[in-house]
Amino acid sequence: MPAHDPIEILLAHNRWANRKVFEACAALSHEQFHQPFEMGLGSLHDTALHILSAMHGWGDLLAQRDQQRAGLEEDGERTPAQLVELMDELSDDMEASAKAHGPDEDVTGERGGNSYTFKRGAVLTHVTTHGLHHRAQMLNMLRQLGVEDLPKLGVAMWVLQGEER
User: Fold this and answer.
1) Which region, left, alpha or beta, applies to residue 139 given φ > 0 means left and ψ of -120 to 50 means alpha?
2) 7: part of which helix (H) or strand (E)?
3) Which of 19-28, 66-75, 102-111, 118-127 has the lowest mean pLDDT?
4) Which residues of 52-77 are buried (b: 16+ CB within 10 A; e: fewer)?
5) Of 4, 140, 151, 160, whose CB has the highest number of CB atoms within 10 Å?
């Protein structure tokens, strides 16, 4: 996809921004990384895992896998470095699906006994904006923990920094 393609931009920025906020968590103690907050999914760890769980589940739908893989939460605790590694795998999977199919193609899946049909572009937009929402919560948690050098995660900052796509 060309660098001006909105789907490519959303996916590349999503990978970059996840990496930045997960790496910001690497300097924290285990206790800080798991400290409960009354926002997000309750902790930095659980909120990060939730972001990746959405990428995991929606990635299965985009790839039209016959069987959805087991949920990530069942695998237990992960370090920030392990989250970055998993995020790269899930990002590769989503990017491959985006390249293999057009954004206007339908994708159908089932959840809770109900069948749903979405446009692929809508799924990709949902996953990336979902991540944006929860990364903002993570930045707030980091701020409350006293982290001063918070990453700036906006798309414009990504473009201005000339990050790899």
Assistant:
1) alpha
2) helix 6-25
3) 66-75
4) bbbbbbbbbbbeeeeeeeeebeeeee
5) 151
Q: Tens of pLDDT along 135-155?
A: 999 999 999 999 999 999 998
**Burial of residue 160, with CB atoms counted within 10 A of its CB: 0-12 exposed, 13-18 middle, 19 or more buried:** exposed
47 and 141 Cβ atoms separated by less than 8 Å: yes
Q: Which residues, other chains included, contact 40 with Cβ-Cβ below 8 Å and sequence gap of 6+?
A: 46, 47, 50, 134, 137, 138, 141
- CATH superfamily, domain at 6-29+38-100+109-160: dinb family like domain (1.20.120.450)
